[in-house]
Amino acid sequence: MKRLNLISLIVLAAAFLMAMGIDLNNLLNYANQTKPVYITRDNTPPGNTITNAGATLGRVLFYDKALSLNGTIACASCHQQAFAFGDTARLSKGLTGGLTGRHSMRLVNARFGAELKFFWDERAASLEDQTSRPIQDLVEMGFSGTSGQPGIDSLIRRMEKIDYYPRLFHFVFGDSMISEARIQRALGQFIRSMQSFDSKFDAGRAQVTNINDPFPNYTAQENQGKNIFLAPPNAGGMGCQGCHRAPEFDIDPATLNNGVIADAQSPATLDLTNTRSPSLRDLVNPQGMLNGPMMHNGNFTSIRQVLNHYNQIPVNPANTALDPRVGGPNGMGQNLGRTPQELDAVEAFLRTLSGVAIYSDVRWSDPFDSNGNLTVLPLPPTAVGEMLTQPSLGIYPNPAKDYIQLSIPVTSDYEVSIFTTEGKQVFSQWVTTHAQLNISPLPTGLLLLTVQDKTNGYKWVFRVMHQE
């Protein structure tokens, strides 16, 4: 029973590190995720393809509140995994309670679209460009370099003093230099890795040769809604496909505004510049609840409100940038005349676009613990050469309470070091072949023991469980 408890403790510790930390020896899979063959659009730039290491750094950056001026806001504060990386608030809170200028856009499947520009008004030329702008926003994360606030150079100096960042940047880029461009690259990789293709729609699409075919797993209402979504207005549809292009359901880069023109903070003011949209995937969570309000101003709080809007676009002569696809005659707003039953069907279809894994997959979860601390297990150099043919090193007992016996098969000078999972060195001793290591003064819990042969540089890393 005692042995079982110790094994369980080790398993639990490993699971904890996967969920609440970073193990550089066992990177999660970001680079080689599978996607359906019918998903073809991809806005990844050639110079920043997703890597496991780069996305891992991006995950840390995304969740780290140290990237805000007062340490209270992270990217994940406004883009939450529980809501497909959006926010249920109409406008998100910034540093000191100030509000964002627009609703926080859901980030899920941001990679899978032809639009290269980001933000509702497309002011960022790329996702990489977008990622550091909230950090430098006066209200959001504060390193603006304006109104007496420090700029991003101050943030970089702060990050250089945080123990895990030099290590992570070196791991990803080959040296420990921290720069805005590298922050952008890592965040871009992490955000593009957020993919959701396990929906009812995807299960149905995999069973047919053409999206227009009835999906076997759909209800009659869902298939009707799919047809209405895809068909143009002159063929009994709503023309949604003209701008939100299946099967990615991304936004056509050529769109103008959709007739929702009230400014988010000053409704009496017109805001005609919003021409981008998040993917229509994951509008709702697996329980069917909306993942936050919709449109740039967050004014629509149900899918039906959105459909009602498109069914009859309000006339506003001041809107000089209404997209002609929803403009109706003379650009004065369309009136499709779809019935309540047809709108119900479209909503039923839109609800089939939501997946499951995106809301709980550890790859996109918060690696920091409840106290804001991050565990980063170091990467062991690979042991190579003739040493591999020798009997393995012996470390016992493990778990251990007071002492560890170390047996090394080849006589040499070895440096034995022990680190906490936070990377703090707590022990160092030179040995030759055999040694007894006193670990009683060391912290209890999981420790990392390294043995380095100073003659040839070979290095081994072991996990050691120190019992109380």
Summarize the structure.
The protein has 468 residues and is of the alpha+beta class. It is built from eleven helices and eleven strands.
The secondary-structure class comes to alpha+beta
Total domains, how many?
A: 3
Low-confidence stretches: 1-18, 380-391
Cα Rg: 27 Å
Mean pLDDT over all positions: 90
Structural shape: elongated
Instruction: Please state how the strands of the largest beta sheet are arranged side by side.
Output: 8-7-10-11
CATH class of the largest domain: Mainly Alpha
Major sheet size, sense and barrel closure: 4 strands, antiparallel
What's the β-strand tally? Answer: 11
The ordered string of helix (H) and strand (E) elements is HEHHHHHHHHEEHHEEEEEEEE
The name CATH uses for the topology of the largest domain is: Cytochrome Bc1 Complex, Chain D, domain 2
